[in-house]
Amino acid sequence: LRGLGCPGAATPASQPRSVSLAGLSLPEEPHSAAPVDFLRELPSCQSARRRRGGTQERRAALSGTAGSRGAGTRALEPEGGQQVARPAREYPLSIAQKRTLRDSQQTDIEHLSRWKKWKTTSSKSWKKMLSEVRGLSSYLVLWQRDMHSIEGKFGTGIQSYFSFLRFLVLLNFIIFILMFSFVTVPTIIFKYGIFNSTTAKISPKDIEENCTIYEPSDNKGLVYFYTYFQDLLSGTGFLQVTSLFYGYYTVDAIWISIMRYNLPLAYLLTTIAYLALSFLWILKRSVEGFKENLVHDTDQFQSYSNKVFSGWDFCITDPRAAWLKHRSLQCELQTDLQEEKRKQKIAERTTKEKLCIYSLRIFINIIVIAILSGCFYAIYRVTVFSQENSNDISNANFQVNLLVQYLPSVVITLANFISPLIFSFLIKFEDYTPAFEIKLTLMRCVFVRLANIGVLLFSLWSQISDCGTDKCKPCGYNYKLYPCWESDVGQEMYKLMIFDFIVIFAVPLFMDFPRKLLVTHCSYKPVQWLGLQEFGISDNILEIIYGQTICWIGTFFSPLLPAIATIKYFIVFYIKKISLIHTCKPAARPVRASSSHFFFFFVLLIGLFLALIPVGVSIARIPSSKACGPFRNFNTSWEVVPDTILDFPTGLQQLLFGMASETFAVSFFVFCCIVMFYFIAVAEAHKRVAEQLREQLVLVRFDPLY
């Protein structure tokens, strides 16, 4: 605190210190204060003052300990009979002095008026209750005990993956609550006639009758038992006519008593709301990770000091909890030492070694580009083949037809499974740091997984809207092949999510556990050289980011898809935990959580932006289905907004249309630029202040008299 220039932290200038020189005791002249008065307003100094509380009282108490005990106690008592600010246990005194101070506080309370006595007692009771509630709330945190166990055994890097998975479980659950409350529940109320609800039917305008024909196959009559299993995997049959997909919501408006509920508007606004909520929440978590990473990268000495001198939690009483905390600190220090060793190794490289490593990296990147190109081309060709031939196969070859329909999902899943394995193998030869290794592998796999979704959607929409014949003119889309194209897109997203879950479940069961048995019970040298599986953070993070991107895209076409994603990630947590504990070994090079946390959310933000593109195109550009869904009476889904605005008063209409004009958009953009430049200037000023503080800390470190 003295180095930070914080008032009250350094020795006051009015109290001269003595310096012993050659046996002589000479009074030291008080040093002039450093010109850092502006630092008194920093939040760090204000926080330090709040934490210190009664600094002057403590000094008086400490000076009084040399005299009588009663004098020290009186120095700590507040003046003027005011209410005691802190309990006795928070003062830096011995047990006997704290008992004396507590008796003195009790005596002072007895002499107070009834109102002040009741106020003091109720304040203590309220603080005690809040403390107990905070203690109980820690038990309500999802998987808190499991997180501590994983952190102690495998370090904070792997623990950050499970923390990231818990964040997605909560996010999908909240998205499900939004869609279920504002879209599904009103429709169910109308379907079952709850609260004497009625519907306001809007007759279609200028729509041909052929466009309104939609007859989903719901397995009427006698069917084989395995048909239901196939429908459960593909989202067809009995699932196609349920509230899981877009085609179920065919209500225009619902009247509950005298209240009119506009379901199309609620459907669109809820979609915008869950996308905005996801963006803001991810941005908030990204900023937290960025600040942690920034603080860590500023000074390595500070990181060591924090771990060595203030890393231990002295509230730990359980031996197992103490062991877990010890392992956590050990993993952190091990990571620091390995990073320092790697930096030293990089600094000692010769020119020949640098040329070799750079040439190897260029060659590996060429291989990676070839793999990416092959995956993209394979997905495109398979999707086109599936769309062209899935309906040409007779019902006699039902299994072949099913395979052709699922061929894009199968190929996408295989590409997502094989390409990360190849990238993880190639990255070992490029000699990067563990943190950068995770980031680069993630970026390579992002192009495979997320671009695969883009290729699939592009192929679907080319078949929906770009049909090239006159059969699309009556409805604006290929109504013969896709009478309710939103439900068809929702089924594709549903199949991708189901297949992704099957792969996540099958890999530990059919690969990791047999590998564990072979390594444990087989002494054959190649098997022992293979060893146990390491928990790949980049592969596992990308798995759940890929699934979350599918959920964001598919929620508009399948409103209950977030519920499936919540259940999926809940089960995935235990699958990954069991696989980590029983089949994996700690990483040879531990990874720091602070260096990867921000990048995880950055990649998740990329997935969100990718999801915004197809959802936005579906809402604003592609004509909505005229045979199903809440937007069947509108040309596009977005037209419900101006149609609703037309029912507003004239003044409000002009205001809203003015906000949607280009003039307002340009003005708002200029205003945002000005605000952005202001914050950039403030950030630069804070950066200069941080550099000055760092220089002062260096002086404190090497000059005790500063």
Please provide a written account of the structure.
The chain has 706 residues and is mainly alpha-helical. Helix content is 67%, strand content 3%. It is built from 22 helices and 7 strands. It has helices spanning 43-52, 55-64, 69-76, 95-110, 114-137, 144-154, 156-191, 225-234, 263-298, 300-310, 319-347, 351-389, 398-427, 434-464, 485-521, 525-530, 537-555, 561-583, 593-620, 640-645, 650-659, 662-702, and strands at residues 18-21, 24-27, 198-199, 253-256, 259-262, 533-534, 584-585. A 3-stranded antiparallel β-sheet has the order 3-4-5. Strands 1-2 form a two-stranded antiparallel sheet. The chain has a two-stranded parallel sheet with strand order 6-7. Helix 13 (398-427) packs antiparallel against helix 14 (434-464) and helix 15 packs parallel to helix 18. It is globular, with a radius of gyration of 33 Å. The two termini are 12 Å apart. Residues 1-36 and 54-84 have low confidence and may be disordered.
